[in-house]
Amino acid sequence: MLAWRIAKAADIDDLSGAGAAIFGARWNHPELSALYLTLSPATCALDVVLLAGHVPRLPLKLMTLRLPDDTALYCEPTLTELPAGWDALPLDSPGMEYGSQWLERGEHLGLILPSVATDQARCILVNPRHSAFSRIEVLQVTDFNFGKPGLPASG
């Protein structure tokens, strides 16, 4: 399974999930490490814009990763199994509680979830403490820019 992440150039190689543990995020409480990935580069870019509230203008990198293909390593709840309010903008605690409980159980490497942007796109919350985490491979890291070079910035 391929997955992607976008991060600042200085942070792209940190796959520890420590960044999410500092303040917490949509699917984890503070102090719980979690790695946020998406299952397409376009979803990754859209989620970055939604979270920032604008198109970031700082140097970013796009990382492509290969996750183990063993389906037993993943859990994919249906929309009806997710708590009400998981998709609130800005984020709220129902998703944090749900994801934190999943992380603490440690049963799966990844929790496949809908994107806040659209239910048809998928993200994956990765548990860095899972025994299969060491099987994740970084395939490529490239520069990432929103839009094509030379296009005028809007706003």
Q: What's the end-to-end separation, in Å?
A: 37 Å
- The best one-word shape is globular
Count of alpha and pi helical runs: 3
Estimated radius of gyration: 15 Å
Taken as a percent bin, the fraction of beta residues is 15-25%
Tell me, rounded to a whole number, the average pLDDT. 91
Biggest sheet, open or closed, and with what strands and sense?
4 strands, mixed
**Helical percentage:** 10-25%
What is the N-to-C succession of helices and strands?
EHEHEEHEEE
Order of strands across the widest beta sheet?
Answer: 2-6-5-4
Beta strands, count? 7
Count of discrete domains: 1
Low-confidence stretches: none
Structural class: alpha+beta
Overall description:
- The structure is a single chain.
- The protein has three helices and seven strands, in the order βαβαββαβββ.
- The radius of gyration is 15 Å and the shape is globular.
- It has 155 residues and is an alpha+beta fold.
- The protein has one domain.
- It is 20% helix and 25% strand.
- A four-stranded mixed sheet has the order 2-6-5-4. Strands 1-3-7 form a three-stranded antiparallel sheet.
- Strand 5 and strand 6 form a beta hairpin.
- The chain starts with a strand and ends in an 11-residue tail after the last strand.
Brief rundown of the structure:
The chain has 155 residues and is α+β, with helices and mostly antiparallel strands.
